[in-house]
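ARCHIVE CARD
Drawer: 12
Card no.: 0347
Subject: one protein chain, sequence and derived structure
Cross-reference: see card 0346
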Amino acid sequence: MSALPNTVDIFVPGRLCLFGEHSDWAGGYRRIDSTIAKGYCLLVGTNQGIYARASRHPSKLIITTTLPDGTNLGPHEIEMAPEPLLEVAEEGGFYSYSAGVAYHVLSHYNVKGLEINSYKMDLPIRKGLSSSAANNVMVARAFNQLYDLKLTKRGEMEIAYQGEILTPSRCGRMDQACAYGNTPVFLTFDGERLDVEELPVREDIYLVVADLNAGKNTQKILADLNACYPKSGGKIGEDVRYYLGPVNKDILSRAKIALQESNHKKLGALMIEAQRFFDHFMAPACPTELLSPTLHFVLSNPELEDLIYGGKGVGSQGDGCVQLVARGVKEQKRLIAKLKEMDTDPYPLTIKAQNKTNSAASGNKNETEE
């Protein structure tokens, strides 16, 4: 038996929800009402993320972080014991996510502490790219590798989710799919059951994600939309459930095929369609956040027409980030330049094609959790 590593270097990307935002928690309501539709979404890891170096510690969880703007936080120390970890997790705040994951791992595995230095983060925070989920997967992966927990990616994803729901955050299960890296994944949500299918692509797909530098209140969006479930909210509630049910299923079935075929034009057209339906059926449930004037200004800007096939909002939607399907690699670069002129912070996202050997292997990977 080989010795455990003393130190591990970890990179975990953010996650971009290409299609199917909000369907994770909506599909979760099937555990109390089977007439509610299943949830479906398509995700991929971003090219940006969290870079960390971790080592074992005999008695504490020690966290040092460098934020995207260069601000250094910590080292922050928490005793590696159930009570202090749970206290930090439940009170919320920056360290609550790491504490939640550590609490869950400590409750289920024979581990001691960790010392983690997240020395680089080029992922925007609170912009719909799941920076908190990336952090949670990073902590779960550090425990997994340093203590040889033998977790699959799906196992790391589950621990990250269980850690997050110990905090005041009430995210759905999709966020932690960043554990799969740059491989797109198709997720199905059926109550507590989650199916994960990896989807290798035939050719590179060029996107741009841009921080709109505006702002949104994700907790309000989630609260207002959840108020429409399981069978409440009147006509507005019916519209929300219709969009997250039949409409989402239809769009996702077509988007899955378009992604596997690397059909840029079809993906862009489907994003335009998805955004139009979202604005019609979903925005009235939370108009103060989902009218999204900055998002729609970018999406409708005529200067971008020759560079993109389409685009839509990101994450919970609102004025956090926008995603756009570029017409090619040259257009991706020009699009980034144009978006900078519009006072946004753009990031390239290229979904890389896999070779035939890897595609054949990855195409058969399906994981299910109940």
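Annotation on reverse: The mean pLDDT is 91. The longest helix spans residues 234-260.
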